[in-house]
Each structure stands twice: as structure tokens, then as C-alpha cells.
Design brief:
Blueprint (H helix, E strand, L loop, with lengths): L7 E4 L2 E5 L56 E2 L5 E2 L9 E2 L1 E2 L25 E2 L2 E6 L11 E7 L6 E6 L4 H11 L8 E5 L20 E6 L1 H11 L5 H14 L3 H9 L2 H11 L5 H15 L10 H12 L7 H15 L1 H10 L2 H8 L4 H17 L2 H13 L2 H10 L7 H16 L2 H4 L8 H15 L12 H14 L18 H13 L1 H12 L9 H16 L22 H20 L6 H17 L5 H10 L2 H16 L4 H28 L1 E6 L4 E10 L5 E7 L13 E4 L3 E6 L4 H4 L8 H6 E8 L2 E8 L3 H14 L7 H18 L34
Parallel strand pairs: 6-7, 9-12
Antiparallel strand pairs: 1-2, 2-8, 3-8, 4-5, 9-10, 11-12, 13-14, 14-15, 15-16, 17-18, 18-19
Length: 857
């Protein structure tokens, strides 16, 4: 509805008070100026000077776009043009005119206007903006966000928060709206997700649409809850601990609790152990959350406190919620303090951890495995070997294989990581043998070499020395060692190379003793061939041992994030030596398939490497399954794959094809960019990594559909993928400064630059963004190398930077190959020249005119 005269009228989304009546003629009868906009689309009747415009139906106001720039209460002076700024109305003018002698009221007859009408007519008299009407939107300043503030038993407030104002001033305004005094006793928190307190440091995380809640100030809340811990009633202590669990993850609140000796009070509850149920579990949880902030070192814990926690682990009848927390606390102590780690090692027997592993409780199994791997990592090499030998004797391997790997419940990420660590530590026991060369003066090692020769060439019960002189015996031994595949008559010279050192001799002895028939067949079969076609057993074994150590990363430090353990290594004892037995027979099979000679040795090893690597990547669950799969990958199959790749490469080297590929490249790069951005919109779960130990905490991050905001937040283990609307945190893309990778990431620099950090650097990337006046970082650890490539490419595309990852190169190459083949389908079997045909020289003259006067016969 709209009215004439001095009544209000809605125009351009604003409630406007008019001092006169407008006209909607094509030419204003008052000012005799043409209107800059046409009248409303609905035909109006009775248009004329001083007459209201009406139509047959109910009276309606004309609809025009909103006019941002007019603030409520603004009075427009008479005859003074006002320009609207921003939005679609940029550059339009609104003019109010009237007699200069009057400041208010309806004029008898308006004077000649000072300028042309701007909105389809002349406003006769002054007007002003009273208030926004429904549907009106105006772009707020950059540092102003629209939020909601709620409080229990109160009507929520919808306010515009000016980030330039001090937080204390904002808090006072919120309290005044609810008639609350002493605003310093209150604080603002995020209402969704973790109830984090808002401070000057994190207030930049408040975005449009955020919901905050008014709560007690962190210092008062900490004082009140710590006082509740001293309550005489059990229910009072339980309720105080429940509230502490909810707030302990917030850094601001944790500082207040720790500064008030909160850790000491919690330590008293844990040491007293008056309640072994929920109260103790809550106390341990709060203690762990507070220690995770890193404000207090784990080395400050007292020995009686650690022993009390150990007693909870060793206790038989204990609440199921207490022991996983106690195991987690001891794991942190072991990884952070060598001295206290030795105490834990001496107080917690391995048999007790085996008991926890056999309980059908996945959380308890995971925490017990975490403490076990922490104890193994902190032990010396000799102690580690002794501990692992004891664990294998107690059938830990069989239990892991049957009840954890093949359990009905899915294997969690944390358990997969600890199984990887256990596998790496077990294979690490081979490193001393791999780094030790043979000792030519060692009687034991000489006897091992003679046993290797005798198993191949001397029948059981026969002796080489019967009836032969010493020189003849030495000559015969040297010849047999040559047949065995050693490059020198003295086999010790071949084993001086490290790696593999003595590990190669161990593998050969294991093969000869545990597969004697296969060993004899291998050696004798190759001895009977022609010299140029025989496969040297010793040389192959030495090189194959090096290859297996490289593929299995023997001797390399454990990664902090890797989960790629192989179930096959828990299927039986001596898994490395058993794998060698399969691999050496595969090498002999491939050698015969290739009809190789001594000159082809390196080529054969390359094929065997590819066969082993492809099969290990399939993660077979048993050695027999590995044997089946690797034998199915014959040399012919490998050759076919290589030939296909070579043909693909050769088909793209012709100059016309290269030119076509260059023309297709921009379009395909844009396709890859869109795919990367879609991958960011789908989102991904990332794992948080602590500076002290690996954490079992997940968080989810995704890109909004309009590609303007990164949304992220914490999620629980095992929960379904959250929706973007449920994520509490937002990071505008416009605030992002740069993308950092590898060692440039702050969460990698903080962890040092040793070998332990190598795998972490390969998967780490960070986003630097504006956080107020400071630079902040959003840190990522990708689950895999492929996910790392996809996310760094997507973020680079989002920031307008080139996508330079290896995955982009592979995807582009694949798309170019496929698109090129589609374009060349019609040219199949047509030879494509390497260069265009030459342009013929110009003719001697250009007299090509046809004489029409000459009659044709």
C-alpha cells in the first residue's frame, strides 16, 4: 500500500515520509521535465497534475530495486540531489524539491526544479527515510557482522557486531539490552560445536550468521567448577566434572583452570581413587584435555601419581570407561618423558597389555596397542628385540591376525597406524644384520657359507674332503661357489657390500633350510644351463634382499601418520624370510620367461621389482595369496603393459599431434580445475596431529558451493560425514594469503627437521589467512599422497595459482591422450606426416585472365 500527502510510503525498500504527492506522468506537469524512468508496469488511470494515480484493483506501490545508501532517519534537503551508492542503483539520483522558503509542509506550488527528475516524477515537498521496509537489504561495512546472541530464559538478540569495537564494549551493550549489570562477569561463547570463549584473539572467527551465547566469564566459571570439586556430595563433584569436560578443550578456560591449581585438584581426585566409576573417568578425561594444551609439561607429573594411574591399568575389576583413559594417559607420559617412560615400562607388565588386547572392546584394544607401541619405540634396540621376541612367544601375532585384522568390526584409523608401527619396528630388527658386512675371519660365517654350498652340491652324508688333497679341495670349493652364483671365488667378497650385508646370507640360509628341494632345484637347474643363460643364485639373492629392504622400508623411521601395514606380515612368523623365498622363486621364473642372459640381469631385476611392488600394493592377507597373485603377474603381462605405455608415448610425439595437444591443453586444464574444486566441495576428513603424539581426533573441511568460504569443524570418530551447514567454523577465501606446503608449514617446522618428520612433510600443507591484524594458519595433514595432490591443486586453483602437482600432470596426460585419440579416430591407419607439405613456389606470372572473346570449338 502507498499513500499520498504526508503519509508514509514504501519506495525502494525504504519507509519514506512525503511532504507532497508524486506524479507518474511521462512528462511531469509540475516541472515540465521528462521522467528518467517509465511509470509502473501496471497501467494507472487518472494521471495528471495534483491527482493521485489509481487503477481498477487495490492500490499498490510500484516495485523498484532496493536503494542501498539511504540510512533510516536521513533527511533530504529541499532541491538537493542525493546520490545512492552501491548495488544496482549506483549513480541514480533521488531529488526532493519544493519552495525554498518552506522547510516542511506541502507547498502551494513548487518552484522550477533545480535538476531533472530522477525517479519518474517530482517529489513535491521534503521527504525523509524513516525505517527499512520488509525485504530491504543494505551492504554492511566490511568489519560489521550480523549475529544472534542468546541467553537462557531470555529472548535472543539480533545484533550487528562491529569488529572494530573493543570486546568489552560489545559485551556491555549485550548485557544492557537484557538489563544485566556487571558485564565483566559475563563472556560470549560460540553456541554450536565446542563451546569456545570469544576473545580478542579469535573474534575474527565470528562470521555472518554466527550464533553466540552469553555465559559466565571463564575466570568465574573456573573458580565455581573447581569449588564444586571440593563438594562433599558425590553428585556435586560429578556435575562439576561434567561441566569441566565440556569446557576443558577451550584454551582460554584451560588457562584459568591451570592458573588456579586445577591440575593439582584433579590429580588429588585421581590419586585418592575414592570413586572408581564415573567420577574417576571424568577426572582422567579432564586431566588429559588440560594437558593436551601443552601449557604444562608431562615431565612435571609426580611418580606417585603415575604409579596410581598404572594401578588402574593393572587392576582386574575396573570400570570399562576408566582403563582406556588410563592407558591413553600412560601413552602420553611414555612418549613425552623418557624417565617416566622407564617407570611405566617397569610397572606395566607386557602380559597385562596382552590381557587388554584380548578383551573384545575396540577402544580398550586401541589404547592398549598404543601404549605397547609407545613402550617399544622408547626402548633400546636390545630391549626392543627382547620385548618383541616375548610378545611373539605369547602368540600376539596370531591374536592380531585373527581377532583384530579379521574382526567383524571395521579397523579404525588409529589401530591401523599402530599396526603399521608394530610392523615397522619388527622389520627394523633386521637393520643391524643389513648394516653389518661379513667378517672374513669369523669361523661361524665361514661355516654358514660351507653349509650353503654343501646343501646344493653334496648329497646328505657325503663329504668333499674324502680322498682329495687340500689344493684339490680348495679348487673344487671355489668352482662350486662360482656355480652357486658368487662373482668371486671367495664368497666373502660378495657379502662385504652393505646393505644388504649379512641379511642376504641369512635369507640364502633360510631358503636352503626351509625349502631344500626348491633350493637344490634352483641351483642345479641353472648349473646345467649354458653359461650365458644361467641365473646366478647368490648374486640374485643379494640384489633381491636390497630390493625387499627398499620396498618394505627396512631401517627407516616410523611415520607419524602412515597406516599402510600389510596383513600378510601378521599371518606367520619370519615373514621377511618367507617373502624372500617366494621372491627368489619368482625371479627364477621370470628369468626363464625372459630367456635372459647375464647381461640382462638388471632388466630382470626391474621386472621383478615391478611385480613385487604391484602385488604388495594389493595388500594380500596371506603369503599364499601373495604367491598366487605375484605368479599371475607374468613377464608377458608386464611386457604388455610396458608396450602399451610405450605406444601411447610414441603416438604423441609427432609435431602435428603435439600442436593439437597444445590447443587442447587449456580446455582440459580448466576441466581438471573444476574437478579439483568439486573435490573441495565434497570435503574430507583430516586428522589432527599433536606436537607430542598422534591424536585420535578428526576434523572435516569443505568448500562452499559458491567457492567463497571454507567451512570446517571437529567431528567424532565413526560419525557420518557432516553437512556444510553444521560446520561451526568458516574461512572466507578472500582472506586467504597463500598456500604453504612441506617444510614451510608451521605445524611441520614446530616438529623439527629429523628423519621422523620426512613422511609428515610430504603430506602437510597449510593456509595462511588474515586473522584480524595478524597472520593465522589452518593446518592440514592429508590422509594419502593422492588426497594431498587433490587438495593442494584445488586450493591453488581457488587462489588463481597454477596447479603444479604430479597428479595434475598425470591427469592432464591421460585426458590429452584420450581426447587426442578421439580426435584422430577418423585417421586410423592413415599415416600422419611429421611436417606439413611444402608450399609450392609462386608461378612465373599471374596472367590468369580468361579471354571471353575467343569462341570455344
Amino acid at each position: 500500500m502507498w499513500f499520498f500527502g504526508a503519509l508514509p510510503w514504501d519506495y525502494a525498500g525504504l519507509r519514506v515520509e512525503l511532504g507532497g504527492s508524486p506524479c507518474w506522468n511521462r512528462r511531469c506537469g509540475s516541472c515540465r521535465q521528462p521522467a528518467s524512468l517509465p511509470p509502473p508496469a501496471t497501467p494507472w488511470r487518472g494521471a495528471g497534475q495534483g491527482r493521485p494515480l489509481r487503477r481498477g484493483g487495490p492500490e499498490q506501490a510500484p516495485s523498484y530495486p532496493p536503494a542501498p545508501g539511504l540510512q533510516p532517519g536521513t533527511r533530504i534537503p529541499l532541491g538537493r540531489p542525493q546520490r545512492l551508492a552501491g548495488g544496482e542503483n549506483l549513480g541514480r539520483e533521488v531529488l526532493a524539491t519544493g519552495t525554498k522558503s518552506r522547510a516542511e509542509g506541502h507547498p502551494r506550488r513548487p518552484q522550477r526544479p533545480l535538476t531533472r527528475c530522477a525517479l519518474g516524477g517530482r517529489w513535491h515537498g521534503p521527504w525523509k527515510v524513516l525505517a527499512p521496509a520488509a525485504g530491504w537489504t543494505m551492504a554492511p561495512p566490511r568489519n560489521v557482522v550480523k549475529i544472534a546472541v542468546q541467553m537462557r530464559d531470555a529472548i535472543p538478540q539480533l545484533i550487528q557486531l562491529d569488529q572494530a569495537k573493543p570486546l568489552a564494549t560489545v559485551l556491555k551493550e549485550v548485557c544492557d539490552a537484557w538489563s544485566l549489570t556487571h558485564s565483566e562477569r559475563f563472556a560470549l561463547q560460540f553456541a554450536d560445536g565446542h563451546r569456545r570463549y570469544i576473545t580478542e584473539n579469535n573474534r575474527a572467527e565470528i562470521k555472518n550468521g554466527s550464533i553466540l551465547c552469553l555465559s559466565t566469564a571463564p575466570d568465574l566459571e573456573a573458580e565455581q567448577l573447581l569449588g564444586g570439586l571440593q563438594s562433599a556430595s558425590r553428585e556435586g563433584r560429578r556435575e562439576a566434572l561434567r561441566q569441566l569436560v565440556l569446557l576443558a578443550s577451550d584454551m582460554t578456560f584451560a588457562q584459568e583452570v591451570i592458573s588456579r591449581d586445577g591440575l593439582q585438584r584433579l590429580g588429588t581426585i585421581i590419586e585418592d581413587g575414592d570413586d572408581l566409576g564415573e567420577v574417576l573417568a571424568l577426572g582422567l578425561r579432564v586431566f588429559l584435555e588440560l594437558m593436551e594444551h601443552g601449557m604444562v609439561s608431562w615431565e612435571t607429573l609426580s611418580i606417585p601419581f603415575v604409579r596410581k594411574v598404572v594401578s588402574y591399568v593393572n587392576m582386574n575389576l575396573m570400570d570399562a570407561s576408566v582403563q582406556p583413559l588410563a592407558l591413553g594417559l600412560l601413552e602420553s607420559v611414555t612418549l613425552s618423558s623418557p624417565a617416566l617412560g622407564q617407570l611405566v615400562k617397569s610397572e606395566v607388565p607386557l602380559d597385562r597389555l596382552l590381557v587388554h588386547l584380548q578383551v573384545m572392546n575396540q577402544q580398550l584394544q586401541t589404547k592398549a596397542m598404543a601404549l605397547l607401541t609407545a613402550l617399544l619405540q622408547g626402548a633400546s634396540p636390545a630391549d626392543r628385540k627382547q620385548m618383541l621376541d616375548y610378545l611373539w612367544q605369547r602368540n600376539l601375532r596370531q591374536f592380531i591376525y585373527k581377532n583384530i585384522i579379521h574382526s567383524a568390526a571395521p579397523l579404525g584409523d588409529e589401530m591401523a597406524h599402530h599396526l603399521y608401527v608394530l610392523q615397522a619396528l619388527t622389520l627394523g630388527l633386521l637393520e643391524p644384520r643389513m648394516r653389518t658386512p661379513i667378517d672374513p675371519y669369523s669361523q661361524e660365517q665361514r661355516e654358514q657359507l660351507q653349509a650353503l654350498r654343501q646343501a646344493a652340491f653334496e648329497p646328505e652324508g657325503d663329504s668333499l674332503g674324502t680322498g682329495l688333497s687340500a689344493d684339490r679341495r680348495r679348487s673344487l670349493c671355489a668352482r662350486e661357489f662360482r656355480k652357486l652364483g658368487f662373482s668371486n671365488s671367495n664368497p666373502a667378497q660378495d657379502l662385504e657390500r652393505v646393505p644388504p650385508g649379512l641379511l642376504a646370507l641369512d635369507n640364502m640360509l633360510y631358503f636352503s633350510r626351509h625349502a631344500p628341494s626348491a633350493y637344490s632345484r634352483f641351483v642345479l637347474e641353472n648349473s646345467s644351463r649354458e653359461d650365458k643363460h644361467e641365473c646366478p643364485f647368490a648374486r640374485s639373492s643379494i640384489q633381491l634382499t636390497v630390493l625387499l629392504c627398499e620396498l618394505l622400508r627396512v631401517g627407516e623411521p616410523c611415520s607419524e601418520t602412515a597406516q599402510d601395514f600389510s596383513p600378510m606380515f601378521f599371518s606367520q612368523d619370519q615373514s621377511f624370510h618367507e617373502l624372500f623365498c617366494v621372491a627368489i622363486q619368482l625371479l627364477n621364473k621370470t628369468w626363464k620367461e625372459m630367456r635372459a642372459t647375464q647381461e640382462d640381469f638388471d632388466k630382470v631385476m626391474q621386472v621383478v621389482r615391478e611385480q613385487l611392488a604391484r602385488t604388495l600394493a594389493l595388500k594380500p592377507t596371506s603369503l599364499e595369496l601373495f604367491r598366487t597373485k605375484v605368479n599371475a603377474l607374468t613377464y608377458g603381462e608386464v611386457l604388455r603393459l610396458r608396450q602399451t605405455e610405450r605406444l601411447h608415448q610414441e603416438g604423441t610425439l609427432a609435431p602435428p599431434i603435439l600442436e593439437l595437444r597444445e590447443k587442447l591443453k587449456p580446455e582440459l586444464l580448466d576441466l581438471i580445475r573444476q574437478q579439483r574444486l568439486l573435490r573441495l566441495c565434497e570435503g574430507m576428513l583430516f586428522r589432527k596431529i599433536s606436537s607430542r603424539r598422534r591424536q585420535d581426533k578428526l576434523w572435516f573441511c569443505c568448500l562452499s558451493p559458491n567457492h567463497k568460504v571454507l567451512q570446517y569443524g571437529d567431528v567424532e570418530e565413526g560419525a557420518s560425514q557432516p553437512t556444510p551447514e553444521s560446520l561451526p567454523e568458516q574461512l572466507p577465501v578472500a582472506d586467504i594469503r597463500a598456500l604453504l606446503t612441506g617444510k614451510d608449514c608451521p605445524h611441520v617446522r614446530e616438529k623439527g627437521s629429523g628423519k621422523q618428520n620426512k613422511d609428515l612433510c610430504e603430506l602437510a600443507f597449510s593456509i595462511s589467512y588474515d586473522h584480524g591484524e595478524e597472520e593465522a594458519y589452518l593446518n592440514f595433514i592429508a590422509p594419502s599422497r593422492r588426497d594431498y595432490y587433490l587438495w593442494t591443486d584445488g586450493l591453488s586453483a581457488l587462489l588463481g595459482s597454477p596447479m603444479s602437482s604430479e597428479q595434475t600432470r598425470l591427469d592432464l596426460e591421460q585426458l590429452l591422450t584420450m581426447e587426442t585419440k578421439l580426435r584422430l579416430l577418423e585417421l586410423e591407419n592413415v599415416p600422419i606426416p611429421e611436417r606439413p607439405p611444402p608450399v609450392p613456389p609462386p608461378p612465373t606470372n599471374f596472367n590468369f585472365c580468361y579471354d571471353c572473346s575467343i569462341a570455344e570449338p
